[in-house]
Specification:
By secondary structure, the chain is an all-alpha fold. The chain contains 2 helices and no strands. The longest helix is centred in the last third of the chain and has 38 residues, at 27-64.
Length: 65
């Protein structure tokens, strides 16, 4: 599973936890949801950086041929 897919999964899970926490008044669950969303955003950013690095590596590789 790619970093971006993992990030999307974490964000969706986080949204659900946050919503459940708000509905039940469980502040801890709400906070866990927000933390999961932040983790998902970080994974998305890392995945994007990795994709850009791979693109640069591939373009440099093509230049050598």
């Amino acid at each position: 599973m790619s970093m971006k897919n993992e990030g999307a999964k974490d964000k969706v899970t986080g949204k659900a936890k946050e919503a459940m926490g708000k509905m039940t008044g469980d502040r801890r669950k709400e906070a866990e949801g927000k933390a999961d969303q932040a983790k998902g955003k970080a994974k998305d950013a890392m995945g994007g950086a990795r994709d850009r690095a791979d693109g640069v590596k591939d373009s440099l590789k093509d230049d050598k041929d």
